[in-house]
């Protein structure tokens, strides 16, 4: 048989189970409590807003402006009455919209900032009156404006019209040409480069081109002097061709000029009297006068000297070599100018010492030289050269 204590505990077990169930139910109500919303109950503030929006009591309320921004339209917190002011709206002249180029030139009364960049930076002028630097995208067809100061920016179009309507009147005034990159500078640089290449590779051609205008002018003056009537003073005649003798009627004086060449010789002294007389048969026509021979080169010379013994000419060449040697006693260079060879500078020195011309009197159609005198041609270069001589005769014909 069960004891009395055990029986009592068995009788109290249902009571404990009911108490635990009541405790669990009470704790669940703390997390699952729901307060039913009554549709008829609203606060006075919200009820007034619903009436203003025209909502019925049973209609669901949609999204609307916050109560503290009810009268605000723009992000700058400006009232709706003044939100349409500022450069974006106030400076727009809609009457000019249909006109040509109005969207680019005349839509803003403040000058448009032209740019070639896709993104520009605006600081509003900087300083205390400016604003933080912001970057504006101009890669679009319309004008972009700064959100702070309203400065307009746009990309410069590739082709602008030549005429735009003027702001103050309906007259069309010609637009000033926009500054464009000129090719004048490029042409000057190209011409200078071409001239430099011409001087470097073709110095002779460059010299010919630079002296060509002067040669043409001298030729024209020569033609004019030849066609002009004879005057008291004899005019200059060209030396590149035989000139017919000109006679002065007052005193019977006559001029004649001719150019001829000397035989090509290497370095040495040569007697050329017979060659000169053979080239000038006109000497026989003059009773009295002067013959001037002028060599047109700087590395040879003309002189009057011994015409009998050949050793005199050889000794003359040796003496000139000792006066102006081609190199020093040890083979060293003596001269700075050596572009045309080591014998070029000594030839210039010898030519300056001897001279480039001689003047010989004429008597009865012959040269009035002494018994032992002859015309020398002194060549100072090693290579053979053909030398040109200009002969000028002035005198009275027989």
From TrEMBL:
<feature type="domain" description="Zinc finger CHCC-type">
    <location>
        <begin position="118"/>
        <end position="153"/>
    </location>
</feature>
<keyword id="KW-0812">Transmembrane</keyword>
<feature type="region of interest" description="Disordered">
    <location>
        <begin position="37"/>
        <end position="78"/>
    </location>
</feature>
<dbReference type="InterPro" id="IPR001602">
    <property type="entry name" value="UPF0047_YjbQ-like"/>
</dbReference>
<feature type="compositionally biased region" description="Basic and acidic residues">
    <location>
        <begin position="38"/>
        <end position="50"/>
    </location>
</feature>
<comment type="similarity">
    <text>Belongs to the UPF0047 family.</text>
</comment>
<dbReference type="InterPro" id="IPR019401">
    <property type="entry name" value="Znf_CHCC"/>
</dbReference>
<feature type="region of interest" description="Disordered">
    <location>
        <begin position="233"/>
        <end position="252"/>
    </location>
</feature>
<dbReference type="InterPro" id="IPR035917">
    <property type="entry name" value="YjbQ-like_sf"/>
</dbReference>
<keyword id="KW-0472">Membrane</keyword>
<keyword id="KW-1133">Transmembrane helix</keyword>
<feature type="transmembrane region" description="Helical">
    <location>
        <begin position="188"/>
        <end position="209"/>
    </location>
</feature>
<protein>
    <recommendedName>
        <fullName>Zinc finger CHCC-type domain-containing protein</fullName>
    </recommendedName>
</protein>
<dbReference type="Pfam" id="PF01894">
    <property type="entry name" value="YjbQ"/>
</dbReference>
<dbReference type="Pfam" id="PF10276">
    <property type="entry name" value="zf-CHCC"/>
</dbReference>
<feature type="compositionally biased region" description="Basic and acidic residues">
    <location>
        <begin position="58"/>
        <end position="73"/>
    </location>
</feature>
